[in-house]
Amino acid sequence: EQVEYKYLARKADGSGMEWQKGDNLRLSVEDSAKSLTVTDDWDANGKHEITTEYGADDVDEGASGECSTHTEQPLVTTVFELPRELKYGQSLFMVGNDPAIGSWDLQKGLQMKWTDGHVWRAEVMLPAGWVSC
C-alpha cells in the first residue's frame, strides 16, 4: 500500500493557498520499519530522501522462512521534513490519502511545525505494507 500526499502553504484563514507543484508524492512504508524520516523538497517532483530505522525483532518470518501476511496492518512512526521559507502569516500543511493526513480533505490536513533553518516537521503514524519478509 502506498501513502500519497502533497504539501500546501496557506494562511490560518485558508487564504493565500499555494500547492506544491508537480505530481503527488508517494511513499511505501515497509513492514519491518520501526520509524521513517522523510525529507522532501518543495521543487523536486516526487524525489525525497528517506531514512529508515529497523528493529531486529520487526521481521515476521514463518517457520518455513516464507513471507507472512499480517491480518492487522502495523503502524510506523513517520516524520516528514520540508525545508521551505514561507510568506509572513503562512503555515505549511500536508494532505493525502491516509486519515492521519486528512484523507484529501483540506480542513483535516496535518499542520506542520516550523523549526530552525525554516524546516517544517510533522510526525504521524502511517500504515505499513501488508506483507513482511
Round the Cα radius of gyration to an integer and report it: 16 Å
Q: Which blocks of ≥5 consecutive residues have pLDDT under 50?
A: 57-71
Strand/helix succession: EEEEEEEEEEEE
Roughly how much helix do the residues carry, as a percent range? under 10%
Report the mean per-residue pLDDT as an integer.
81
The overall strand count is: 12
What gap, in angstroms, lies between the N and C termini? Answer: 15 Å
Shape summary: globular
How would a crystallographer describe the biggest sheet?
5 strands, antiparallel
Description:
The protein is mostly beta strands and about 130 residues long. It contains no helices and twelve strands. The chain has strands at about 1-10, 20, 25-30, 35-40, 50-55, 70, 75-85, 90-95, 110, 115, 120-125, 130. The strands form three sheets. Strands 1, 2, 3, 8 and 9 form a five-stranded antiparallel sheet that branches. A hairpin with a 7-residue loop joins strand 4 and strand 5 (about 50-55). Mean pLDDT is about 80; it is low at about 55-70.
Question: Would you summarize the structure shown here?
Answer:
This protein has strands at about 1-10, 20, 25-30, 35-40, 50-55, 70, 75-85, 90-95, 110, 115, 120-125, 130. It has about 130 residues and is an all-beta fold.
